[in-house]
């Protein structure tokens, strides 16, 4: 009907359809008109209902369907069952979209099966490719974690996985073993399902499979196209993001009487990050500092939030109960100030930080420009060539000149 409308008709006379409808549904960048494929869009809408069954397991519909069709397993492993209802048949036929585009964010690891579930965030398909060793007794991700040190059991991981997968596993942060595992949509920045991202996934997968591409080519092309889509989406939303406030300080200023000021920064790229924390009193004197090197595949935002957690822990362990915390990464500050959390790994750090906040008499988090955070920035850079160092009641030699610069700028 829509194709007839597009190509035109008169008195019931059919016109020639010069291009097939599927080609018109391609994006304009690919030579199409950007029309919606009704089948793909309908599948995306049905996939959203499946996603809601995973995210809201206590809803009435989720409890009814689970009791009837998948009482002892997750939605992504459910079968069609015997004499299914039209509702379940419809949702189930779109379940492959949820399964293919999602992965588990590891908390405790108790709900995630190592060999069946999707849980490697950087891998195409998010599933383990390594064959299960015959002598392997580990079934869940929980079995790979050394709970005495709150980190991965490196020996087990390197023994069970191929080298490239072992590296991926070891880069996944183990933050809070009390936190539950979270089912996460891989194709959006906040880990939440959206019909738009699901639609683009379906179109990418369908086109590549129709061309007879290999699984690796399908995964590579889909990843590239989805990355482009995310960039376009971020550009469209850029106007909705709060710009750095012009009132944010550009020069370091001392805290009020009786308070301390904590400055933090992260420096590095890729898999190595340096974290630096500096605590000063109302006179601008350094009363504590710490730097630490982390070999983790973190995003800049996650590294900054990790630095916030480290400085709050430093304040707690040394009795600084009233302080103002400053950082030059606005997205990290907004994460800490936000009441809601999403499914990204960074939010496990935010939850840990928020749990410590009630312990303090007074605590605040604010954004400053890099010029007002210069001391912490250079301490973070020092951490890249150093180890975990702690200074109490003295000034780290590597930042003395930058502290003097802060004093000069403040007095001018």
Report on this structure.
This protein is of the alpha+beta class and 412 residues long. Among the domains are: 2-35, no CATH class; 260-411, Ribonuclease H-like superfamily/Ribonuclease H (Nucleotidyltransferase, domain 5, 2-Layer Sandwich). 40% of the residues lie in helices and 14% in strands. A six-stranded mixed β-sheet has the order 9-8-5-6-7-10, with helices on both faces. Strands 1-4 form a two-stranded antiparallel ribbon. Strands 2-3 form a two-stranded antiparallel ribbon. The longest helix is centred in the middle third of the chain and has 23 residues, at 215-237. The radius of gyration is 26 Å and the shape is globular. The termini are far apart.
Compact description:
The protein has helices spanning 2-7, 21-24, 38-55, 60-69, 86-93, 95-100, 154-160, 163-171, 195-210, 215-237, 300-317, 330-337, 346-356, 374-383, 400-411; strands at residues 102-105, 145-146, 151-152, 182-185, 260-269, 272-280, 286-294, 322-327, 362-367, 389-392. With 412 residues, the chain is an alpha+beta fold. Among the domains are: 2-35, no CATH class; 260-411, Ribonuclease H-like superfamily/Ribonuclease H (Nucleotidyltransferase, domain 5).
Keywords:
alpha+beta, 412 residues, two-stranded antiparallel sheet, Nucleotidyltransferase, domain 5, 10 strands
Write the layout of secondary structure elements.
Elements: H1 2-7, H2 21-24, H3 38-55, H4 60-69, H5 86-93, H6 95-100, E1 102-105, E2 145-146, E3 151-152, H7 154-160, H8 163-171, E4 182-185, H9 195-210, H10 215-237, E5 260-269, E6 272-280, E7 286-294, H11 300-317, E8 322-327, H12 330-337, H13 346-356, E9 362-367, H14 374-383, E10 389-392, H15 400-411
Parallel strand pairs: 5-8, 8-9
Antiparallel strand pairs: 1-4, 2-3, 5-6, 6-7, 7-10
Helix pairs in contact: 3-5, 3-9, 7-8, 9-10, 11-12, 11-13
């Amino acid at each position: 009907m829509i194709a007839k409308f597009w190509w035109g008709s008169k008195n019931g006379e059919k016109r020639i359809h010069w291009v097939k409808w599927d080609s018109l549904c391609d994006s304009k960048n690919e030579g199409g008109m950007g029309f919606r494929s009704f089948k793909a869009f309908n599948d995306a809408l049905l996939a959203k209902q499946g996603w809601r069954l995973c995210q809201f397991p206590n809803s009435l519909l989720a409890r009814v369907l689970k009791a009837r069709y998948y009482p002892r397993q997750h939605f992504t492993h459910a079968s069609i069952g015997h004499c299914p209802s039209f509702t379940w048949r419809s949702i189930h036929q779109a379940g492959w979209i949820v399964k293919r585009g999602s992965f588990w964010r590891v908390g405790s690891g108790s709900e995630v099966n190592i060999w069946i579930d999707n849980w490697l965030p950087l891998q195409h398909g998010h599933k383990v490719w390594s064959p299960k060793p015959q002598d392997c007794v580990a079934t869940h991700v929980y079995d790979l974690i050394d709970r005495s040190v709150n980190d991965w059991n490196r020996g087990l991981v390197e023994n069970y996985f191929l080298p490239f997968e072992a590296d991926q596993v070891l880069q996944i942060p183990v933050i809070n073993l009390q936190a539950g595992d979270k089912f996460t949509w891989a194709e959006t920045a906040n880990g939440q399902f959206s019909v738009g991202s699901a639609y683009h996934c379906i179109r990418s997968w369908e086109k590549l499979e129709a061309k007879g591409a290999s699984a690796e080519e399908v995964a590579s092309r889909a990843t590239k196209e989805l990355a482009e889509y995310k960039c376009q989406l971020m550009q469209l939303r850029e106007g909705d993001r709060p710009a750095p406030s012009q009132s944010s300080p550009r020069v370091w200023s001392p805290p009020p009487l009786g308070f301390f000021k904590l400055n933090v920064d992260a420096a590095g790229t890729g898999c190595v990050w340096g974290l630096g924390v500096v605590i000063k009193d109302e006179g601008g004197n350094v009363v504590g500092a710490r730097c630490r090197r982390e070999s983790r595949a973190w995003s800049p935002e996650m590294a900054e939030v990790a630095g916030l957690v480290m400085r709050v822990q430093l304040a707690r362990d040394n009795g600084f109960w009233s302080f103002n915390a400053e950082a030059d990464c606005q997205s990290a500050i907004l994460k800490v100030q936000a009441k809601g959390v999403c499914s990204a790994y960074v939010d496990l750090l935010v939850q840990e930080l928020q749990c410590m906040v009630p312990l303090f008499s007074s605590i605040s988090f604010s954004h400053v420009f890099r010029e007002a955070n210069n001391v912490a920035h250079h301490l973070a850079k020092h951490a890249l060539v150093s180890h975990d160092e702690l200074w109490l009641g003295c000034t780290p030699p590597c930042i003395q000149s930058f502290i003097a610069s802060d004093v000069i700028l403040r007095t001018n």
